Amino acid sequence: MKKFAVILGLMIWGGLLIYIADDFPGWGDPQAPASVNLSPYYIEQSIPDTDVPNVVTSILADYRGFDTMFETAVIFTAGLACLFLLRSYSTKEPDVYLYRHTATGVILRIEKGGTIPVGSADFERIDATWVPHDLIIKTTCRLILPFVFIFALYVIAHGHHSPGGGFQGGVILGAATIIFAISYNLRTATRNITERFAAFFSAAGVLLYASTGVLCMFFGGNFLDYGALAPLFGTTIAGARSLGILIVEIGVGMSVMAVMSSIYYNISSNGRLNEGL
Amino acid sequence: MDVLGYIISKYNYWGFVLLMMVGMYAMIVKNNLMKKILGMNILQTAIILFFVSTSAKTKATLPILEHGHGDHAIHAVDYINPLPHVLMLTAIVVSVATLGVALALALKVYKEYGTLEEDEIFEAQKKKLNPEMQEGEVNS
């Protein structure tokens, strides 16, 4: 019964939305109200103001710099929330450890008190989520990952001239971490990109963004007015804005990458970070 | 055909309304928390579609100014509106963040009650509040 009531309500609401669509501008109308008030200023003044051809980047990091700063803080808070909700530090040590010698396939059963070959390249630990060695997937990921990382850095650094920027490049970096964790296992991933590293970077990204804004105040400008940094960089005001946008985008990329990996670590292993996908 | 022309000239709104209704329906009616989270994501996608579609202009290109340093004059009608793109760029990232927090909460709920079905969770909560209540009295 509830279902039909909801469907009826949604039909009334959807009908109302369709009815008021009559007042909205048509598809691709150049005279639409959203396109004639503020956005012509951005398009025409982006080069004289900030020296950045990609208008999306110049709005994101300069004209609407406050918005993006608190957006980064939202991402940081989401990472913190996942950490506080899920992370548990009570590690229950198993009675028996199983280690497999990768060359011969012999499995060692190590009871309590025995020596555990931690960090040895010849042994791999077998636990509840252990899967057989998959040559194709692991080799492909190992070959492709450096290029994914370099592409992500390119997307962050080239956001001034092409579609890209801190959010997009940061997400690619985070996806590369997740691919690494899936193709090997979570323990290898957390050994290379540790939880401490992710926590440090997620905070450092937000801090880099905010401290750039504070630095502008020291040079006599407003908060996040990168034009005030022109004496520091030795460029024109527009060039200083361009460089300020780059610094801020790097901060955003660091934060997004660290939070993506941290959320994946916590959700995939239920907060224990020892076993997982 | 005037009606057909009207429908075609505003087809982005029909897609927006349809996606929004699908998302709302999943969020209200579905019993499983995972399906509710998926419905929330579909709703966010609908709003992103609405904003991005308002930025379109016919005979305009994407808002990356040609060459950057040329002498040619830049006219706003030649480039699509970049502002909704910026707003939705941040909205996409926030939707990923809310998805992460929602998944973490769902994991917590599953750990506590052993299920993600809403009615079973409510019953378990009632039982926890009144431990002496019998099995048959739950619905009263």
Task: Set down the secondary structure blueprint.
The complex is a heterodimer of chains A (277) and B (140).
Chain A: H1 2-20, H2 33-36, H3 39-50, H4 55-63, H5 65-86, E1 97-101, E2 107-110, E3 123-126, H6 135-157, H7 166-183, H8 186-192, H9 195-218, H10 230-233, H11 237-268
Antiparallel strand pairs in A: 1-2, 1-3
Chain B: H1 2-9, H2 11-29, H3 33-54, H4 83-113, H5 118-129
Helix pairs in contact in B: 2-3, 3-4
Summarize the structure in words.
The complex is a heterodimer of chains A (277) and B (140). Chain A has 277 residues and is mainly alpha-helical. Chain A has two domains: 1-37; 53-88 and 132-268, no CATH class. Chain A is 63% helix and 5% strand. Chain A has helices at 2-20, 33-36, 39-50, 55-63, 65-86, 135-157, 166-183, 186-192, 195-218, 230-233, 237-268, and strands at residues 97-101, 107-110, 123-126. In chain A, β1 (97-101) and β2 (107-110) form a beta hairpin. In chain A, α4 packs across α11. By secondary structure, chain B is mainly alpha-helical. Chain B has one domain: Orthogonal Bundle (Helix Hairpins), CATH 1.10.287.3510. The radius of gyration of chain B is 24 Å and the shape is elongated. Chain B starts with a helix and ends in an 11-residue tail after the last helix. At the A-B interface, α1, α3, α4, α5 and α11 of A face α2 and α4 of B.
Keywords:
heterodimer; A: 277 residues; mainly alpha; 3-stranded antiparallel β-sheet; extended; B: 140 residues; Helix Hairpins; 66% helix
Mean pLDDT of chain B: 86
Gyration radius of chain B, rounded: 24 Å
Amino-to-carboxy terminus distance of chain B: 58 Å
Structural class of chain A: mainly alpha
Oligomer: heterodimer
Largest sheet of chain A: 3 strands, antiparallel
